[in-house]
Write a structure and sequence with these properties.
The chain is α+β, with helices and mostly antiparallel strands. It has eleven helices and twelve strands. Strands 2-3-4-11-6-9-12 form a seven-stranded antiparallel β-sheet. The chain has a five-stranded mixed β-sheet with strand order 1-5-10-7-8, with no helix packed on it. A hairpin with a 3-residue loop joins strand 3 and strand 4. Helix 8 packs across helix 10 and helix 8 packs across helix 11. The longest helix has 22 residues.
Length: 332
């Protein structure tokens, strides 16, 4: 039997803190975990983890009086979505992103039971979206974009670049007091990537022929995304592909091929990139020397670290530290 729930207004949550939705959903109904980030009060970014005990029809009677552009990144399960009481029906597969204008209309989704639904979403006032179009496009192209994105739901596949930017937004706290500037730039970059993908249907936004079978498993995609986030948050850990593959119930070759197909970078290279990013952040923040920053980032060989660092940033760790200390504001 399908249960019916009404979605409350939880979008006004303060940004930066994980939200436990047990006050809205009892454990007999399901679970909701939500994290919100915001840039200048204009664009809001939400990280969703949602599941229901039974098959559930969740609806929202309106958009709480708001006229917004919404971008939905579906990461884990296929969903069926109704907009404006069924006027428009949308089917979303894992790995797809859609854009639609919610002009205070009714929306609803059907959720299967006992599975996790993982989403990333961005929302902004329609008026602000139109300002972005006017700021960056000539008038003829602005009108074309309005006709494409403001009248009906559009969607495309989440590209490797989009996954990269989602990952960067998720880890923005490492930039400390500068995270607001970073988040705003990345959110606008993400909007641009989605609009480009939908407008031009580039070959990058379509699965390559030899990757179709690799990207088909919803379970594998979800497991790889959890692994990627773990590496991103804790790059200094020891990551051995053979051991991780066993933990994920797949072969090592499948793990490495699937990781590259999803994120456009090899598993080993991704670990190294995250370690170098962490080391650079530690050095820039001060308080530790170069050797300590390298060790805290997972490096034990200083010669190798220096070589990798210079290849990535075009400058030695020592010069990077000198430049960082010279450019940091006095109150940092």
């Amino acid at each position: 039997m399908t249960k019916r729930v009404t979605v409350p207004d939880i979008y006004g949550l303060p940004p930066g803190k994980a939200f436990d939705g047990s006050a809205y959903l009892s454990k007999e109904v399901g679970k909701l975990k939500l994290l919100k980030k915001e840039c200048s009060g204009k664009i809001s970014y939400y990280d969703w983890d949602l599941s229901f005990v039974d098959e559930t029809f969740a609806s929202r009677e309106d958009n709480f009086g708001k006229d917004e552009i919404q971008l939905i990144f579906n990461l884990s399960q296929p969903i069926e979505w109704q907009i404006d009481g069924g006027r428009e029906l949308v089917s979303m597969k894992p790995g797809e992103v859609c854009v639609f204008r919610n002009n205070n209309c009714r929306t609803s989704m059907n959720y299967d039971k006992s599975v996790s639904f993982l989403f990333k979403s961005m929302q902004m006032p329609t008026s602000y979206f139109e300002q972005l179009l006017l700021r960056y496009f000539p008038e003829t192209q602005t009108e074309r974009c309005k006709a494409l994105f403001l009248s009906h739901v559009t969607k495309t596949l989440i590209t490797q670049d989009m996954y990269r930017v989602l990952s960067e937004i998720d880890s923005s706290e490492k930039f400390r007091e500068f995270s607001g500037v970073f988040i705003e730039a990345k959110m606008i970059e993400l909007v641009a990537l989605v609009l480009y993908g939908i407008s031009y249907h580039t070959s990058e936004s379509k699965p390559r022929r030899n990757e179709v079978s690799l990207t088909a498993s919803l379970t594998d995609r979800q497991r790889l995304e959890s692994l990627r986030q773990r590496i991103q948050l804790n790059p200094s850990e020891d990551y051995h592909a053979s051991e991780l593959a066993a933990d994920l119930s797949m072969s090592e070759s499948k793990l490495t091929r699937l990781f590259r197909s999803l994120y456009g970078i090899s598993f080993h290279r991704y670990v190294q990139e995250q370690r170098l990013e962490k080391a650079a952040t530690l050095i820039a923040q001060g308080g530790v020397n170069i050797s300590e920053a390298a060790q805290k980032s997972g490096y034990t060989n200083m010669s190798w670290f220096a070589k990798e660092f210079k290849e990535k940033f075009g400058i030695s760790p020592k010069k990077f530290a000198m430049q960082s200390s010279a450019t940091l504001p006095e109150n940092c």
